[in-house]
Model the fold of this input.
Amino acid sequence: MKYTRYDLKRKNTDGIWFATVFIGILLLAFFIGTIVSKVVYRNNNNDTVNTVKPSGVKEIQKPAGDGGRVKFIAIQGGMYKVKENADTMKNTLAEYGNPFIISEQDKAMRVFLGIFTEEETVKRVKELTDKSVANSKMTFEVNNNNDSMAEIIAIINGNIQVLTKLTDKTVQSVKVEEFKKWCEDLKAVDKSSSNYNELNELKEYVRNLPKEISREKAAENYVFIYNLLKKLTL
Done:
């Protein structure tokens, strides 16, 4: 077997070394650029993105004292007795998100843009107001004062995170496999804890979600969260 010996001290190796490194950098840049372009293409054309995994189980802790209160806000476009008027408002709000309708016992219909965190609500309300679109806020304020409520709030936040992503017109669906797995891994809560039944109802709902939520399914997810929040704030 023959071996080729390279004398690293020879002057002409500097040029070879430089050329090798330079070509390597070009190839690496091309490789990275190809990967990035594929990711961008997937997001812009397949319209599918992965949701960010919610905070870990250890980060969901019962706060000291009364635990404070957490607000979730439903932005309402209007309340109507006539279905055609409700549908007109829903179509108007569709330019800004994935609106849904809640039918009240008196047959009145509330048309909502969505349910958001306090911070997101500020941006959404400003956008609607700037476009002269009628809007008002319905605030659900829940106590974060026990283990069940701590998990409920965290799971609702995860749901809202997914639904807020779906308000982006370039996004047709959001993968929720990590979110579903995260919910399954949450620590067990004492059955005597307040709102234990509501927590199990919410976990069961998430468990039955598909692996990917499409924009067309956003409204029914909002309806579930709305009804749950209403029950928690009675």
In short: The first helix runs from residue 13 to 46. Strands lie at 48-50, 69-80, 100-103, 109-116, 136-143, 173-175, 212-214. The chain has two domains: 13-46, 57-232. Residues 57-232 form a domain with the Alpha-Beta Plaits fold (CATH 3.30.70.1070).
